[in-house]
Amino acid sequence: MTKIHRRTILAARICFCVYLALLVYFLFLMESRENTFREYNLVPFRSIRMFFEYYFIYHDFSFQYWFLNIFGNIFLLMPFGFLLPVIVDRRLSRIRIFLFSLLLTAGIELTQFYTGLGEMDVDDVILNVFGAMLGYELLRRLSSLLRSRLHLHI
User: Fold this and answer.
1) Radius of gyration of the chain from Cα atoms?
2) Residues β-bridged to residue 121
3) Helix, strand, coil proportions of the chain in percent (round to 5)?
């Protein structure tokens, strides 16, 4: 393993730890988080459809609220899909990234339900896993580009 490779893995591990700490903070510890009734949605695409209808048809939501609820959930797990293969220092398959992100997101949603800090929503799981898969694909394409252009082995 080259010195550059070791430094890259170390930097990715530090970024991953910071990412996980920020994830916990924003999802569970932030002051604006307050206990709610244990609300949940177990019907796939119900919330996603509602957000699109209320924003585009009824103009009932602000753009910021709509954007944060849809794209915030996607962006939330993109770093997970991008950094996880780097920190374990081996190629992970799409199915493993899918399963790891599914487990992480299901754990987050169950914790939100159990603690009352947020709502448990299957659509959040769908959007989060989609985001993790986007992060993984971004890593694959970026590493392919770096290998071909700079002759690096990531």
Assistant:
1) 18
2) 41
3) 75, 5, 25
If residue 41 lies in a helix (H) or strand (E), which one and from where to where? strand 40-41
Distance from C-alpha of 113 to C-alpha of 153, rounded to nearest angstrom: 43
In terms of Cβ atoms closer than 10 Å to its own Cβ (0-12, 13-18, 19+), residue 35 is exposed
The CA distance from 96 to 61, in Å, is 36
Rounded Cα gap, residues 106 and 113, in angstroms: 11
Segment (H or E) for 40: strand 40-41
- End-to-end Cα distance, the chain: 11
Rounded Cα gap, residues 35 and 107, in angstroms: 18
In terms of pTM, does the model score above 0.85? yes
Strands (E), 51-90: none
Task: State the DSSP H helix or E strand holding residue 24, giving kind and residue range, or none if neither.
Answer: helix 3-24
Residue ranges for the chain with pLDDT beneath 70: 1, 31-37, 89, 149-154
Count of domains for the chain: 1
For 13, the domain range is 3-150
For residue 143, the model assigns a pLDDT of: 86
Give just the sign of the alpha carbon dihedral 57, 122, 117, 77. Answer: negative
